Amino acid sequence: MECVKTLTTSRNNERFHRQEEMLAVIFLAIILGINAHPFDELHQYVDEHVEDYVQALREWVAVESDSSDATKRPDLHRMMDMTAEKLKNMGGEVEMVDIGSQELPDGTTIPLPKVVTAQIGKDSNKHTVCIYGHVDVQPAKKEDGWATDPYNLTDIDGKLYGRGSSDNKAPVLAWMHAVEAYQALDLDLPVNVKFLIEGMEETGSNGLDTMIVAKRDTFFSDVDYIIISDCGWLSRKPALTYGTRGNCYFFAEVEGPKQDLHSGVYGGTVIEPMTDLIGILDSLISPNGKILVPGIREAVAPFSDEEWKMYQDIDFNIETFKSKIGVSQLMYNNKVDLLSHRWRHPTVSIHGIEGAFSASGSKTVIPAKVTGKFSIRQVPDMDPAMVKKQVTDYLNSVFGKRKSPNKLKVTMIIGAKPWLADTKHALYEAGRAAVKRVFQMEPDLIREGGTIPIAQTFQDVTGKSIIMLPIGGFDDGLHSQNEKMNRYNYIEGTKLFISYLHEVAEIKE
Ligand SMILES: *[C@@H]1O[C@H](CO)[C@@H](O)[C@H](O)[C@H]1NC(C)=O
Ligand SMILES: [Zn+2]
């Protein structure tokens, strides 16, 4: 009996286990069926369309959409039309938003390029992301020292040279191609995608703030997350960017005699505005980089141990950095100090002096009025309004000590805030997962020393979370001669965006 009973039980158990196993297999299949994301298929699609993507970039780079040059405005308008056209062809609901006009220094006004917005997908069960980018470029001329025609995309060893290739035309196209890949394969887009593409970024995003405020309750109302891909990696390793510095830009004008004077005839008798200006500019920062304006260093957020550790782990080579910029010595010799002073500490840069005799030759003039231009890259927890007061008060006091009869006027022209994101936010988790899938490595978490003022505006006005997801290379030469986009970054970046759309859809909120 015992024996039989045991046998029966064990048979029952066996049957039970088989059923359990079968259920587990079915269950697993269901999970896999739901979660199986056809990355291989999508990546293969991208690999098969590389030449189309390069051609699309060639057509965009060929448009001289230089926003700083009023004579190029028709090209810029055409660039916005091309952007809208492409989004329409993708089935997007496209709007070209009029943001008014711009006054030129000569008093004439010209229309600003329209901002292109688009919506692809409107499923209320899905998250909605808004991708921000720009299609205007910095000026470029072959004579500036380009090895190739800046507006004729040229492929040399897998590097696609052309103005605007990396900043920001290829990243914008990569986002469009990522969406197109889903569409072409008839795959459900994991999230609703909105685009907001502007044409004035390189000259300060004229008109965009107002537009964002105006669209807060319409275009932005259903946006969950904002993605910006207008920056680059720090090394050959992919990166996620979680902060940018702000910028306070100052003019310090020193005015003396009513006209320029001959230095032989008047030199030694007048107190020269240029001498005063050089004196006050020299009081801003010490030779070893210490900002001398009282209150500024005290306002900087403390550097935590956790942050120090993050910087320590970042892939960054000081020697490569030195050779890239052509200097033999830097302000700091170790990685953590160098990166932290690039990203999370303020600095003063003196940009130029207007009114100075600047042509070549040796004219002996005493300029009657000179304007020094300098800026302070800002970081949390500095506040532009406070910086304005600190700098103005300090320069006035330094100038006062000189007992000069000349007049000093300090004005702050730009007060762009820094931006900082929480790297523990789900958007960054999604970024890590997407990078791991495409590049089989962990991304570096980095900040930008430069300023992308629109990031903070997005955050302040819409209250949405933002991620900066760069695909540009560390040596792309943005704003410089021989700007390029690596084919590798462009193509693998497109795959990264494809993965990212999937990862964002998985965020539970
Ligand atoms: C671009 O450069 C290529 C190669 O140098 C040349 O063949 C082509 O004609 C150029 N295109 C234009 C539009 O200038
Ligand atoms: Zn840019």
UniProtKB/TrEMBL annotation:
Binding-site residues for Mn(2+) 1, renumbered to this chain: D167, E202, H479
Q: Which cellular component terms (GO) are annotated to the entry? A: cytosol
Q: Which GO terms describe its molecular function?
A: carboxypeptidase activity; metal ion binding; metallodipeptidase activity
**GO terms, biological process:** proteolysis
InterPro entries in alphabetical order: ArgE/DapE_CS, CNDP/DUG1, Cyt/Met_Dipeptidase, Peptidase_M20, Peptidase_M20_dimer
**Key word Hydrolase present:** yes
Domain Peptidase M20 dimerisation as annotated: residue spans: 243-400
Residue numbers binding Mn(2+) 2:
H134, D167, D230
Q: Does the keyword Hydrolase apply?
A: yes
Catalytic site: D136, E201 (proton acceptor)
Keywords, alphabetical: Carboxypeptidase, Hydrolase, Manganese, Metal-binding, Metalloprotease, Protease
Q: How is the cofactor bound?
A: Binds 2 manganese ions per subunit.
**Pfam families in the cross-refs:** M20_dimer, Peptidase_M20
Name what cofactor the protein needs: Mn(2+)
Site feature location: Important for catalytic activity: H262
Please indicate which superkingdom the organism of origin belongs to. Eukaryota
Q: Which family does it belong to?
A: Belongs to the peptidase M20A family.
Identify the PANTHER family for this entry.
BETA-ALA-HIS DIPEPTIDASE
Its protein name is: Cytosolic non-specific dipeptidase
According to its UniProt entry, this protein's organism is Clupea harengus (Atlantic herring)
